[in-house]
Structures are given as structure tokens and as C-alpha cells.
Write a structure and sequence with these properties.
Helices cover 60% and strands 9% of the residues. The chain is mainly α and 86 residues long. Its EC number is 3.1.11.6.
Length: 86
């Protein structure tokens, strides 16, 4: 997650970014929504836009991994059937 510099500097985004592998589904989804909003607003230079787009792609991929894992857990639980303690 990109954090804002609270030091009052103009345009103060820092490069403090949480590794995507450490984010849960909801955090990935929320940051992805923010990335899309920022890109849709425009106003970024090309390099910043590309970096943000790349981060968004990674976030989307991680969201899909989380969802695939959840889907597998549900399928496994259903396959185990009632009475099986998984």
C-alpha cells in the first residue's frame, strides 16, 4: 500500500510500499480500487502511470490467488461432506 508523507511536502507520496505478498484479500482489493481511481483521474506522468498500472496488475493477480484459495477451501469442505471433520 502506498502511504502518504504526512510531512506536508507537495505531492508527498513516499516509496513505502507494502509487499503484495503480505496483503490480505481485502487490502489488495481496496488498494486496487484506489489504483484504478488514480489512473482514471489522470494527471500522472507516463512513468508514474506505468508504475501504478504495474502495481495494479500485481494486486489483481494476488486477489485472484486469494479467491482461488478460498474457492478450493469451499470445494474441499463440500467434498468432505457432513460428519467429516476437516
Amino acid at each position: 500500500m502506498v502511504t502518504e508523507d504526512s510531512g506536508g511536502t507537495a505531492g508527498g507520496k513516499r516509496d513505502a510500499v507494502t509487499p503484495i505478498s503480505q496483503l490480505g484479500y481485502e487490502a489488495c482489493r481496496d488498494e486496487l480500487i484506489e489504483v484504478v481511481r488514480t489512473l482514471e483521474q489522470g494527471g500522472l506522468d507516463l512513468d508514474a502511470s506505468l508504475k501504478l498500472w504495474e502495481r495494479g496488475e500485481e494486486l489483481a493477480r494476488r486477489c485472484e490467488e486469494h479467491l482461488a484459495g478460498a474457492r478450493k477451501r469451499v470445494e474441499d469442505a463440500l467434498a468432505a461432506g457432513p460428519g467429516d471433520d476437516a
